[in-house]
Amino acid sequence: MGNRGNGRSVTSRALDLLGAFDVEHPTLTLSELAARCGMPKATAHRLVGELEAWRALERNADNRYQVGSRVWEIGLLSPVPRRLREIAMPFMQDLYERSKENIHFAVRKGHDALYIAKLTGHRAVPIISREGTRLPLHPTGVGKALLAFSSSEFIETYCARPLARCTRHTIVEPGRLRRELALVRARGYALTNEEMTLGSRSVAVPVFGTDGRVEAALGVVMHSVCGGLTRHVPDLKSEAAKITQAMNDHRTDPYPGFVHDLPHEG
Amino acid sequence: MGNRGNGRSVTSRALDLLGAFDVEHPTLTLSELAARCGMPKATAHRLVGELEAWRALERNADNRYQVGSRVWEIGLLSPVPRRLREIAMPFMQDLYERSKENIHFAVRKGHDALYIAKLTGHRAVPIISREGTRLPLHPTGVGKALLAFSSSEFIETYCARPLARCTRHTIVEPGRLRRELALVRARGYALTNEEMTLGSRSVAVPVFGTDGRVEAALGVVMHSVCGGLTRHVPDLKSEAAKITQAMNDHRTDPYPGFVHDLPHEG
User: Fold this and answer.
1) Where do the HTH iclR-type domain residues begin and end (chains A, B) (predicted)?
2) Which of A223, B44, B93, B102 is most open to solvent, judged by the fewest CB atoms within 10 Å of its CB?
3) Mutation choice for B interface testing from A11, A98, A107 by most B CBs within 10 A
């Protein structure tokens, strides 16, 4: 398809430019955008101009492109994450008040944990997770909780893929990960110790749907020097149960295709 | 321009379909989308199909279109609201802990207050504001704080426009609004009493930039039956000053064109 393709290719290529940004690449130059989309620079230039005119892209002080705040506004209208956040947030707030640590609520999207909501304060350890961030399942607390309670087929598929090493403590051996996940299932909560980020530890529990499937995970992240990680478990389990109940109360219509495997995740 | 326009029109029309959604219209049928964009239904159908294939749009159980969670993820990469949230959130959290009420952080976008961050809990009064919501300036606490400390030219322009009546308590008389704004400036905080929503009251303070211009507003919303709204003022002012300091510390690059008037606001 040429430089001036038909409508389909133009729209999807314009969207691909937006999709080229991620947590590790929040700003990109025109050349980087073109390269990441496998697009001639001239095409990228034209489409970027249109995205900028619509304020889907902005340029920062260094003349690098970034996602425009208009996309932020429109994205917040997406009903599924909005509803999940609205349901989980008050329970997360209660957990935050008692722990003063980072509180996470995440769902599984493909092979990642997608962070739907996060609460933090001045006393919490600084960590890389943000709302909208995706992190791998095996080195994160919420990810291990999501993975451990997934189907055995999914667990096998996950363990058969290369397991990224995030720190020297990340579990990258499939056999060890399988044993760890069995332990998570047996005790009902997941622990990490500097497996995602040096200096932080986490504890997380699954949030089940009323059909018994894991829908989300709720976790606490704290400084690795702090003891007493498991003291948060009863509180996490209690709030997770309340979220299950609240999700059931709100489930007037299902969340089609949001949680679990999604077509575009490949 | 025909049904199959050139790249520019195709991209901008596809984006217009995304921009057709707002807080009052989080889901739309194909006909509604076409009508809101002034587009032939056949064109809308083709472009909607492309947006859906890319997961920028999703269909819900009622076969209505809604913004896809993929746009939510990408939107959260937008650096300006992300940074403002990261700066304000810990201070908002402290305010929440002491008040247990809804806490808002908003900036002015054109003639609206744009809600950048919100904290809430079980005990807070249910209100319509959400992150990403725009509400008019004159009936909201954060809006009045933003408006009162804007330039006198902007205030005059705002007061010369029709003032929407949200409840029977909304101030819709320009003269009365001007006097109210003078009072806000004199005492350093804004109050509302059921002016946006029956049953809720609010108090808000401006958050100044280091150049003395108002950059944002910080507010508390509570049940209208609760007394003691002004007891939150010292705490709000103190946290607002800390946010000013934190914004200054973080301001390695400016927020070009985000706060205040924006080209597309018209």
Assistant:
1) 8-69
2) A223
3) A11
